[in-house]
Design brief:
The structure is a single chain. The chain is mainly alpha-helical and 123 residues long. It has one domain: Rossmann fold (3-Layer(aba) Sandwich), CATH 3.40.50.1100. The chain is 40% helix and 8% strand. Helix 2 crosses helix 3. The longest helix is centred in the N-terminal third of the chain and has 18 residues. The termini are far apart.
Length: 123
Amino acid sequence: MPDVELIGVTVSRSVAEQKPKVIALQQAIAGQLALTATADIHLWDDYFAPGYGVPNDAGMEAVKLLASLEGVLLDPVYTGKAMAGLIDGINQKRFNDDGPILFIHTGGGACAVCLPSSCITSR
């Protein structure tokens, strides 16, 4: 497997609670692909406040930014918080190098249609 970092932004649990679940998923996927799970796992739990299922300002800003610049819909409590973590991670230079970054959008776009129109701005 390529030398990669696996970085997750938690939106529901602390790192201590989430990391064993991510390790199990990593090992299961690697096993299905007949690979060895070697990626370093880093989880960030700085972004899920004020709590599970509750939007925050950084997540809402990420939702607005991606909708206005890329036409990508994120939901405000899951993928929005994850994108806020990615943006902040880039700004804080939390990544090991300048290589490519893959953000996996896990869904939740349907929740975005419930947002007030003031949350989405045009270009």
